[in-house]
Amino acid sequence: MIIRKGYKVWVEDRDSAWVGAEVIDVTEKLVRVITDSGKKISTSPGKLFPRDTDADHGGVDDMTKLTYLNEPGVLDNIARRYVLNEIYTYTGSILIAVNPFTKLPHLYNVHMMEQYKGARFGELSPHVFAVADASYRAMMSEARSQSILVSGESGAGKTETTKLIMQYLTHVGGRASGDDRTVEQQVLESNPLLEAFGNARTIRNDNSSRFGKFVEIQFDANGRISGAAIRTYLLERSRVVQITDPERNYHCFYQLCASGKDAEKYKLGHPSNFHYLNQSKIYELDGVNSAEEYIKTRRAMDIVGISLDEQEAIFRTLAAILHLGNIEFSPGKEHDSSALKDEKSRSHLQVAANLFMCDANLLLATLCTRSIQTREGSIVKALDCNAAIASRDALAKTIYSRLFDWLVEKINRSVGQDLDSRIQIGVLDIYGFECFTNNSFEQFCINFANEKLQQHFNEHVFKMEQEEYSKEQINWSYIEFIDNQDVLDLIEKKPIGIIALLDEACMFPKSTHVTFSTRLFQSFRGHPRLEKAKFSETDFGLSHYAGKVTYQTDSFLDKNRDYVVVEHCNLLSSSKCSFVASLFPLLREESSRSSYKFSSVASRFKQQLQALMETLNSTEPHYIRCVKPSSLNRPQKFENQSVLHQLRCGGVLEAVRISLAGYPTRRTYSEFVDRYGLLAMDLTDESYDEKTLTEKLLHKLKLENFQLGRNKVFLRAGQIAVLDSQRAEVLDDAAKLIQARFRTFIARKAFMSIRLAAIIVQACCRGWLGRNLYAAKQQVAAALSIQKYARRWLFRRAYLQLHSAIILIQSSIRGLSTRQKFLHRKEESAAMVIQGQWRMWKACSVFRRYRSYIVAIQCAWRRKLAKREFRRLKLEANEAGALRKAKTNLEKQVEDLTWRLHLEKRLRASNEEAKFVETSKLKKELELLSGELNAAKLATTNECNKNALLLNQLELSMKEKEALETSLTAMAELSQENVFLKGSVESLTKEHMEMEHELVKARKDRNDTLEKLQEVESKYLQLQQNLQSLEEKLSNFEDENHVLRQKAINLSPRRNLGVFAKYFSEYSGALAAPTADQTALFESPTPSKVIPFTHGLSDSRRSRMTAERNQDNHEFLLRCIKEDLGFKDGKPVAACIIYKCLLHWHSFEAERTAIFDFIIEGINDSLKVGDDNKILPYWLSNASTLLCLLQRNLRSNGFLTTPSRRSTGPSALAGRIAQGLKSPLKLIGSEENVSLLEARYPAILFKQQLTACLEKIFGLIRDNLKKEILPLLSLCIQAPKTVRGPTGKSSRSPGGVTQQSLSSHWESIIKFLDSLLTRLRENYVPSFFIRKLVTQVFSFINIQLFNSLLLRRECCTFSNGEYVKSGLAELERWISNATEEFAGTSWHELNYIRQAVGFLVIHQKRKKSLEDICQDLCPALTVRQIYRICSMYWDDMYGTQSVSSEVVTKMRDIVSKDSQTFMSNSFLLDDDLSIPFSTEDISKAIPALDPTDVELPPSFHDIHSAQFLLQHPAGTAAS
User: Fold this and answer.
1) Of 67, 70, 93, 154, which residue is the catalytic one?
2) What is the bridge-based pairing of β-strands 540-544 and 547-551?
3) Does residue 1353 or residue 511 have the better pLDDT?
4) Which residues, at least 6 apart from 910, have a Cβ–Cβ distance to it below 8 Å?
5) Element (H or E) spanning 94, and its range?
6) Beta bridge partner(s), residue 381
């Protein structure tokens, strides 16, 4: 690596592993750097690694995308992502999972599983679900079993990761059987049990798994989970009898000792009292209560299905092992014999024998002696103390090992295995690489297993590299494969290997670890992987893939020996405890001959490991490396040294090493040219494609050993540093040029400022001199001005005095003349008033005289008329009967008037208060009368003109006067009588007038009362309508219940046509009505209508005719449903004809009929046939129309009949009001001309089925639309890459995106929406449904774009935000063109994606506070969603940063608090699959239509069943 001054590098640090630094000085052998913390360090160039200065603050999601793929770069990238809670990172196909030590429920909900379901690996953000989905898809496509290897040290989250994998596989694969518990639940329920018996405390972890677990999830041929199995490997048996401080034995022993009564029952006490436990002084774990853990273990046993007797036997066996360890031996009386040391040992022996339920003497004999089978017979040999102790420990290990195997088998039986399964996914959870201060036989075996797994891992990584190279079509044949086979040969190769030498040493009783070490060093002298420890003669060191480990061989031989003693097996197989006896089945005769057989733990470990590797080799592997970021188990704590060690042990850095052996740097051509195109600007000016430009650029820079693939350029290790070095030189030169220009600008600016200052000083001096001269001149001018103003003031004061005197004289003279004029005018006005009064009096007198003349004339005329009336009356009076009759009539009138008078008096008494109110009205009428008076005055003038004519008539009247005087005497009596009658008539007239006034008032009161009554009546009608709707709903519910009860009791009416005809023919003869017009054709007889089947030939003939008619009707309806009848005036013909037929056939009133089920089945069958784009909108229109007709014209049989228990209350009051107002319901019916049909429960059920069918059609259309638009949306979320122009620059902003690329993606969405709207409108789908469909489509667009934005980091860019924003503008334009009638609130459905995109494209994000973002920019988004966008955002155009670190910290704190409070707080949006309308909504939104004007199509005219539609089109509607 070329190192220059100013370079950014990584330097090794003791505390932080690696720290960032900058080169400040370079010599031949040393480089001097200064770290980010200010510390100066001198080091050699070989210990420095280049650092990417352009690295994004959020890191990269795949390590292969790193500019410099090295150890510090990997560590820094993981740390960057961990700060943002991005716990998953890819390294190629390997997933690195960092334990967050906090809940992140938004990453693991069902919606997140759906996002990764079927997604291409690497397309979305790294996730454990992506690995699980890739394994599942590979299993289904290749029909090959898969394996997922989860590794990491204890506490890194292996168990949780395994749980998430099984949870996802359960979600994707489901469950073939009907078990309520999922495989994930059943396997995880066994975890506490396996942890109690297989986990122990180690130096690094309090809960370390000391065995390997392989969970095998089995699938059937359809990809559904059919079973599972748990297989365990490599249990650390030696831990049962030997532990080192500060480690512990298995948890179950400590739990049993803390169990209280159970411990007393088994004669147990504190763990310090037992040899197998007190070898370490650690008896309790921090934060762990052994008594509570014991209860959890017992509960887990109950869940797994272990009975109480078996639990009792298990813990009895554990207690016996502890007592067995306390048996001590001393030399016996004979040579090389042993005996019990003391009584304490004897008591423990007796307790152990009692717990094993075997004989104590036999147990002692099996421990202290051995029987050897010879030809002559069996020879019993005594064992010395060491051999007896070894026999005791061998028995304890054998019992515990078989107990653990029994538990695993029991768990497998509980979970349920599918032995016929041919494909499965295995999840391996095994302990990781271990390197402690003191490493013994256990660490040797564990690291051997990890070496094996690492070899498998290396082969897989190299295979992935080969696939990548083959995919890009580059030559990779000369790339060397880095392998660790030499270490494996050193450990396991026969006949000379560490394990073989160890077994050989164990075969000889007198061998020790010294002889073993000597033999080992002699056999492998000079081996590069093996070396002798410096300060020990027996310790040896191995160079593993993860580093060098030094092993202490002191206990290697003891821990490797595992004797299978026949006496032990025979003794325990004869135990009275059935459980213990089942652990030791009887041996075969051949095997029982060898009493004392050596068994190597290392060899058995090797065999189990080989079996595991064979299982893994038969599957396609997937790797997950779990990392524990902090030893304190706290969130947001990242310990670099610990993580780096885990990356080494997990093989991640080994994978990096393999990648470095090939082509570690891979860049797409566009990225390469964008970054390094400035090194050859002359080439970018020519029109080359990106690949050619890359090749010419590399040749110009004289780089070798690079490869050009199909889409990427592959560079060897170190070449990217050379390119960056040259790029830095170019940028340095450019920076120097910019600095020179800038310094010139600064110097010129300083000169200009000095020059300006000199000019300002000169101006100030000149100004000072000028101001002094100006002040002198100003004083002279001021003196002159003062003199001028003083003189002016004196002259002005004299002038004002003279002026005021003149004004005073003038005002006095003018006042005198004005008063004289006023007095003259006052006298003149008084004279005019007097003249006016006089003239008025004179006119009034003339008027009175004229009026008296007119009255005289009128009286004369009236007298003439009265004489004529008198003569007539006189003639009538001659007849006595007539007079009496008149008198009687007058008396009756008088009585009637008297009665009315009394009535009026009573009315007056009752209406006095009303008169007071009417007084105000009368005053208004008085004003009107005054207006009429004025009109009468005008009429008077007209009468004056008529008076002239009356004077002429007066002369004639005078002549007649003489004739009348003669008759006056005869009329004297009549006159008196007439006067009396006139008086009475006048009084009656007055009373009549008053009564008329009262009548007018009464009419007004009546009108007001009627108006109030009408208002009350309208309110009552509204309430009655509401009551009717409620009663209708109630009756619908009652009918539904009735239908369900009837369907439960009776047989289903759904039959095929033949069965229905047969069923109908059996009962058609029993119908009471004689004709088909009077009885429903599809009505089955009720019991009251059935008569004995004893009719003659006519009844059977009628039955056959009815069945034939029913068959014809069914065929007619089936043809109406299957054929496309089209529309007439926007009305669907099929729906109208079906409704008219059902109405004509009285099907809605039938108690039992199959016609409705027939219609529903026909519609469902028609939906399955034909093009969905045509048939679904057609039937959406027809089904909605038919449903509206049923909703508006049907009511249930209990619509207006309220039960008796509801008679009191509002319903009774409504009834009384209805009766008092003469039934407003009848008024409604008469006004709207609507008559609702009484519908029976089949009709009600039909309406519900039709509603369900309509919802199904709507859902199918919506789902089809989502399927069609989803591929288009996947293209629209990310801006397409543009063709590189002659400048060599490419842009992904809309400014750089051609119109064709925009039209090819977003215009396809617009065309899709146009075609949708066209299809729906061609089928006359109501605008209500179009609006709902368009709204849901836009909601789906919002959800898909927003979720893709949050899951794909390449979408969270500035240029992509502008691209999506331009597409959203196209959608907004489409919505405005579609109008609100069809688009509705679609634009508001895009709120989330609009605000997210708006946030991406704003500038100066670092200046925005969290309040500005949450309240102004993104009010609809949650803090978690904003945090996700901020953590994934990167500016690919201007290189600006995201929001400030303070805002990120605030959001992270809020998100962490929310994670602890809520269980489900996903940042993704969920798709709403509900139906967004109800039947009432449809009825209100769709306008009413009349089906009567829909005519039958001509093709149906020849059908006999449809003739009624041609003959009586109006009668059908009226019925």
Assistant:
1) 154
2) antiparallel
3) 511
4) none
5) strand 94-98
6) 370
Known catalytic membership, residue 38: no
Mean pLDDT for the stretch of residues 1305-1331: 86
| CB 701 within 8 Å of CB 679 | yes
The DSSP call for residue 1416 is I
d(CA 1088, CA 1085): 8
| Residue 244 annotated to the active site | no
In terms of pTM, does the model score above 0.70?
A: no
Choose the catalytic residue: 151, 161, 209, 640. Answer: 209
Instruction: Please count the other Cβ atoms lying within 10 Å of the Cβ belonging to residue 1258.
Output: 21
> From residue 944, how far is each of 853, 947, 952 by CA, in Å?
11, 5, 14
- Range 647-678 burial, b when 16+ CB lie within 10 A, else e: bbbbbbbbbbbbbbbbbbbbbebbebbbbbbe
Active site residue 227: no
Among residues 1127, 1376, 1431, the alpha carbon closest in space to that of 88 is found at 1431
- Spot the catalytic one: 71, 86, 216, 434: 434
| Angle at alpha carbon of residue 1448, lines to 1443 and 1449, rounded to 5° | 145
Among 784, 833, 628, residue whose Cα is nearest residue 207: 628
Q: Is 1215 a known active-site residue?
A: no
Tokens 């039709």 sit at which residue?
Answer: 1250
Give residue for tokens 């298995």.
250
Q: Which two tokens stand for residue 1089?
A: 């209508």
DSSP 873-922: HHHHHTSHHHHHHHHHHHHHHHHHHHHHHHHHHHHHHHTHHHHHHHHHHH
- Token duo for residue 34: 């200064």
Which tokens go with 546? 């993860």
| Residues with Cβ within 8 Å of residue 183, at least 6 apart in sequence | 166, 169, 170, 175, 217, 225, 227, 228, 415
- Do 1334 and 1382 form a contact (C-beta atoms < 8 A)? yes
- Asked if 159 is an active-site residue, the reply is yes
The DSSP output letter for 1414 is I
Give the tokens for residue 793.
């003031």
The residues, any chain, with a CB within 8 Å of residue 804's CB and separated by 6 or more, are: none
Question: Catalytic pick from 125, 159, 161, 1202?
Answer: 159
Q: Which of 59, 227, 432, 650 is catalytic?
A: 432
Catalytic option among 58, 155, 677, 1384: 155
Please name the residue ranges forming H helices in 1050-1085: 1057-1068
Q: What's the full length of the chain, in residues?
A: 1519
For 202-256, how does the pLDDT look when each residue is reduced to its tens digit (9 = 90+)? Answer: 877 788 888 888 888 888 888 888 888 888 877 888 889 988 888 899 999 999 9
The pLDDT assigned to 415 comes to 81
Of 145, 199, 208, 317, which residue is the catalytic one? 208
Question: Helix 880-910 vs helix 912-968: angle between axes, to the nearest 10 degrees?
Answer: 160
Q: Ramachandran region of residue 1475, left (φ > 0), alpha (ψ -120 to 50) or beta?
A: beta
Distance (Å, whole) CA 628 – CA 125 = 21
How far is residue 1485 CA from its own chain's centroid?
29
Mean pLDDT of 13-24: 88
* Omega before 629 within 30 of 0, i.e. cis: no
Pairing state between β 1127-1128 and 1131-1132: antiparallel
- Residues 388, 365 contacting (CB under 8 angstroms): no
Give the chain's mean pLDDT: 79
C-alpha angle with apex 1340: 1335 to 1344, nearest 5 degrees? 150
| Rg of the Cα atoms in the chain | 56
Supply the DSSP string of 19-45, one letter for each residue. EEEEEEEE-SS-EEEEETTS-EEEE-G
Tell me whether residue 155 is one of the annotated catalytic residues.
yes
In the block, residue with structure tokens 């304890």: 396
* Residue 1307 falls in the annotated catalytic set: no
The whole-number average pLDDT for the span 498-515 is 87
Q: Which of 64, 102, 109, 205 is catalytic?
A: 205
CB-based contact 1246:1204 (threshold 8 Å): no
**Quick check: is 1379 catalytic?**
no
